[in-house]
Amino acid sequence: MSKWFLNEEGSVRSGWKVLGFIALFMAMGIGLGMIAKAFHAPRPSNTLLVWINAIVMALASLICVRLEKRAFRDLGFRLGSRWFREFGLGALLGLLLMVVTALVVKGFGGFHWEQAAAIGARQMLAAALLFLGVAFNEEIMSRGYPFQRLVEGAGPWVGQLVFAALFAFLHWGNPGMHGATKAWATLNIGLAAILLGFCYLRTKSLALPIGLHLGWNWAQGSLLGFGVSGTTDVKGLWTPVFHGKPEWLTGGAFGLEASLPCALVCGLAIFVLWRWRGVTANAVSADASTASAS
Q1: What whole-number distance in Å separates Cα of residue 280 and Cα of residue 82?
Q2: Which InterPro entries does the entry mention (predicted)?
């Protein structure tokens, strides 16, 4: 019976580690909710709620890696100059992917932009803080401990496909997920998950995927004014005015993530990362040594 739980080295199999992490995170979330209800805590703002979820996710990850006698930084948080460079590069890449997608849609006559009123630096920074929390929370869940253990146990493509499907499924409850929009959004969110997975696999760090996730969401919503996975709470610096073109071209109210151009741009980015050999082992070791020394 133990062979179902232990591998040849006598360690718990990766699948059980993933299930254990999910159970732990859910238990911590339920427990925190019960405490908040007992003390009649007011409902937090969206930004605070996102960061609370991110902290709970990080604590669950910390517990799991410590049970394995590993360090939290081994999940992809070896902070140092390389980490912050990759984070910045990821943010720029995410922004670039959304801008290119929007320009393709605009080039086909899908919309035109009008400048929004009363949107300044304060609103843009507040949106960045919100989307940073979203990026941290979703990346530590989808490219952090459970993803990495599944990759270790079953290989990168199993990890990629399982978490791409899970990432897309978790967005099914978002506003606007119906009909053809649901099909295109599911496809593109799955492709985005594979893209973010390659960001981790090629760098062995969560800096690039967190940065890309942040840049993608912030550019799509706060800068360009589109919906972000169906949510329209964040107002953009610019407002797109649609011209009645099909939603498979524009993404409609759901956002650019439900459009054909987004699938093409994501596919191209995945191909580039697939062909990229990634960061060398020497570079990772050197950065880890610098972080330890500091």
Answers
A1: 12
A2: Rce1/LyrA-like_dom (IPR003675)
Domain assignment of residue 19, yes or no: no
Helices 207-218 and 121-142: crossing angle, nearest 10°? Answer: 140
pTM of the model: 0.91
Tell me the residue range of the domain where 229 lies. 80-293
Q: Is residue 13 part of a domain?
A: no
Q: Which residues pair with 238 in a beta bridge?
A: 115
Helix (H, G, I), strand (E, B) or coil at 124: helix
- Separation in Å, CA 83 to CA 22, 235, 270, 283: 27, 30, 21, 11
Number of domains in the chain: 1
pLDDT tens for residues 10-61? 677 888 899 999 999 999 999 999 999 998 889 889 999 999 999 999 999 9
For 108, other C-beta atoms within 10 Å of its C-beta total 14
Contact 211, 288 (CB under 8 A): no
